[in-house]
Structure formats: C-alpha cells, structure tokens
Amino acid sequence: MTHLLPTFTHILARRPAPNFADGLTDSTHLGVPDYDNALKQYNTYIQALKDLNLEVLVLPADDRYPDGHFVEDPCVIFRDVAFMCRSGAEARAEEGESLKPYLSDLRIIDPDDDARIDGGDVLICADRILVGLSHRTNQAGVDALRRAFQTAKPDLIVEAVNFDGVLHLKSGLTELAPNVLIHDPALTTNADLSWATVITLPAEEGYAADVMPVNDTLFIAKGYPAAVKVARAYYDHIVELDMSEFQKMDGGLTCLSLRY
Asked: Which helix (H) or strand (E) covers residue 227, if one does?
C-alpha cells in the first residue's frame, strides 16, 4: 500500500531513567509502573525501529528529568526545523536543552517566553498540522510553532484545536493514513474535522488511538483487536507493541521518539 505521510530516516530517543515513575501522570488508577518491565518494552520498541533500517540514536537516561524519555514533548521536527517546545508543565520546561546537541544538523528554533507547548499536542498530518490547546499548550505556543514551520513551508496550514478528555491531543487523535484520523471517544472536540475520515474506536480501546506511522509500517499498542482491524485496511505491515508501563505514565508510542 502507498502512503503520503512524511518519510523518516532518523530516530532520536532517550532511555528511561530508574526514577521514571516519579514523572507526571493522571493515570495513577492504573498502578505504579515497573521499571524492569518498562525497559523490556522500551528495548522492544527501539529494536522494532532499528528493524526498519532507520538511523536510531538512543541517548542515555537522564534522572534530572523523570519524563525525559518522552522526547517528543520537548521538540517537534518538521522538514529541516527543530522547534524546541517549552512545556506548560514547569517540571518539564527545560528538557529540550538536553536534546539540542543531537539536533545540530537541523535549524533549531526557540519560541518566545510566553509560548507554552508540548509536542504531544502537535499532530503533523499529510497536508496540515493540528495543535491541541491543553493545560500544557497555549495559543502563543500554536502561533510560535506556525511561524517557525512556515519558514520551511510558507503555505503550511497550522490549526489550533480545542479538546477535552485526554492529556494531549495525540493521546486521543492521530492520523492513521492521509486524511484518515483514528479517535479515542474520550477525546471531545468541536473542531472542524470534515476534511478527514474520522474512525472512532470502541471506548475500551481508546488508548490505541495513539498510532505511529513510520514510512510503510504502522506501530500500534498491543492488545486492541478492533484498532488492529481498522489499521489492516491501510497497512500491510503492522507492529503491535506492549505499552502498559508507559500507559501508566500517560505515555504512548508517539511520545518515545523523535522521527525525522
């Protein structure tokens, strides 16, 4: 099957630190994550990316940032631009600085001080970018990201999306294929999504709405058969990965890597 989503050649990731359970989470009802099991899941995730013949760089754990392995939040990459996010969660606001030395082949752009944004709220689609307005992302953050990425593509559409019900926009809405969105019904929004086909998963499988397309392969959380059935209409190659320990920390597949 042919896909028109961005093509990736590089992966930047960071190994979880032993204190990763001290990170921020609203999912305490799922229990305390197990570090050893999290490392097993993480290593499987990284190996699956390496199996796609991508250039994968895994940084060492940094216990200054218990959430630091969620590298997608402090940085968003579009074409040759690395936009350094400043999270509305103060505990995470400085994580991006530790990534800059590894992004020197890109144009690094820092937002103004009033711009707050988490990469988990930024959904790069085939023909536009959606940015969720959340507790960690404000309108100034959306505007800063738009200005930065329009230096790479002046006619780029960047739309702010009001939503509720989940932590980040991509916790409940990602692009499965060009103009096809997969949706967790826990996420509610009045945004105009009429440009896309929106596939809403059963409530009990909502976590699987955070899918990760990588070239002609789709990564999806393991244990969600309805989501896999939907995905098979668009992908011949699907990789299911256990994400249970990261789910306990409000994390998903897309959170654990920068893909560019």
From this structure: helix 225-231
Pairing label, strands 55-59, 75-78: unpaired
- Token digits of residue 47: 């190996």
248 to each of 4, 35, 69, 100, 163, how far by Cα in Å?
A: 32, 11, 14, 28, 21
Alpha helices in the chain (DSSP H): 35-50, 139-149, 169-172, 225-231, 244-247
Report residue 193 as tokens.
Answer: 């999504």
Dihedral sign, Cα of residue 134, residue 95, residue 33, residue 213: positive
Please write the tens of the pLDDT for every residue from 217-238. Answer: 999 999 999 999 999 999 999 9
The residues carrying an active-site annotation are 168, 255
Q: Which residue has the tokens 């820092």?
A: 110
Q: What is the pTM of this model?
A: 0.94
Collapse the DSSP code of 162 into the 3-class scheme (helix H, G, I; strand E, B; otherwise coil) and give the result. Answer: strand
Q: Map out the domains of the chain with their CATH numbers.
A: 10-259 (3.75.10.10)
Beta carbons of 106 and 77 less than 8 angstroms apart: yes
